[in-house]
Each structure stands twice: as C-alpha cells, then as structure tokens.
Design a protein that fits this description.
Layout lengths: L1 H18 L14 H16 L6 H18 L6 E5 L4 E5 L12 E5 L13 E4 L14 E4 L5 E6 L6 E3 L6 E2 L13 H5 L13
Parallel strand pairs: 1-6
Antiparallel strand pairs: 2-3, 2-4, 4-5, 5-8, 6-7
Helix pairs in contact: 2-3
C-alpha cells in the first residue's frame, strides 16, 4: 500500500513536469519586439556613420540606446508614463479588444501627478499644438514614443513654462509613417477631458 502511494506521487510529479508550463520557462523573445528591433537598428546606424573619433553627443545617444536595449532584454514589455505638468496630458495605450480602430494604439488621459500602473503599456505621450517642449523643435502637435522598459516623465519648468521630458533623445512619431492618431488640438481641449481609469495587469 505504501509503495502504491509513493508510485502515485511520483507519477503526478512526472505528469506535471511534462505537461505544465515550468516556472523557469524562457522569457518572451525580445528579438521580435518592435522597440528592440528599432533600437538595435539605430545603434548600428549611429556606429556606422561615425568614422574615427565619436563625438560626445553621438556617444551619449549610443549609450542611452544601449541602456534602452538592455531594459528590453530584461523581458519588460511595457512602458510607463508620469505626469508632473500641473495639467491633464494625453497618452497612448493599448487598443481595446472590442475596438475596430484603424490605429495601433488609443488616446487616454492622465491626470496631474499620476503615473500609469505597472503592467499597463503606455506607448507614448501626445503634445498639443500650443505646448512648447524644451528638448523638441515642435511647431505643431506631436507624439513622443515610450520604449518598452522605460518610464517617460513629463514635467513643467516653473521658470520657462516649457514642458521637459526626462529623455533628451525622445523619439518623435511621424504621423505620415505610422498609425498613431495625432490630432491638432490645444492644451485647453485636453484639459477638458475626464482622466481615464486604467485597468492593471493587461500587459503582464
């Protein structure tokens, strides 16, 4: 009888080991991640375009991109946005499953002093046509991409009233080359929106 119990336990363990997903399973293949592909190509392009001595600015860009690449390699598949502007900001996030949108993402609204929750993929920040950003030469509405594994903070400079991003080399999305909805509206219009409610765990 004792032998049968032991045999049963061993059988259950073996079956579980063969059919169940092991806890040490490989992380998602980051080499297929669009952000990873883009970062890798940009690093290669910068390195190929430098002949001899690399300027300090270019080396700084390469270092930042390699840091972003390492963050994606860690298995992080979502970005995060933080609003410190004193106003509501518009951000880009996942398209709901029931949506028939032709765009790759959807606009949401993040209240002042709020951060998108862990696991919710903030893909970018929308900057209205009448908002000046210190690190960008924007003359109209633009969208800034948030790489996976990165937190993009947007805050207002109290002296200049300009917005500042914590990523000096932030990627600006070209509406002609992407499926991002980039409307030409004012900050006052964004302020009139009710902040969104974010469900956690959607992108874990």
């Amino acid at each position: 009888m004792k032998f049968l119990k032991v045999a049963l336990v061993v059988t259950v363990i073996l079956v579980n080991w063969v059919f169940a997903q092991p806890s040490w399973a490989d992380k998602p293949n980051f080499t297929k991640n669009p952000d990873y592909i883009e970062v890798t190509k940009t690093i290669k392009k910068l390195q190929e375009n430098t002949q001899g001595t690399v300027s300090e600015d270019v080396q700084s860009q390469i270092d930042e991109l390699q840091f972003q690449k390492a963050a994606i390699e860690s298995g992080m598949t979502w970005g995060q946005c933080r609003n410190q502007t004193g106003k509501t900001i518009a951000i880009y996030g996942p398209v709901p499953e029931e949506s028939n949108s032709k765009y790759d993402n959807q606009l949401y609204f993040l209240a002042n002093d709020q951060t998108t929750p862990d696991g919710w993929d903030c893909q970018g920040v929308y900057l209205p046509k009448d908002v000046k950003v210190a690190s960008l030469d924007n003359t109209g509405a633009v969208a800034v991409k948030v790489m996976d594994g990165t937190q993009l903070s947007v805050k207002k400079n109290p002296d200049t009233s300009e917005l500042e991003l914590n990523q000096p080399s932030a990627k600006v999305i070209n509406p002609d080359e992407s499926k991002w909805f980039i409307p030409n509206v004012s900050q006052a219009f964004v302020d009139s929106r009710i902040p969104s409610t974010f469900a956690t765990g959607e992108n874990d």
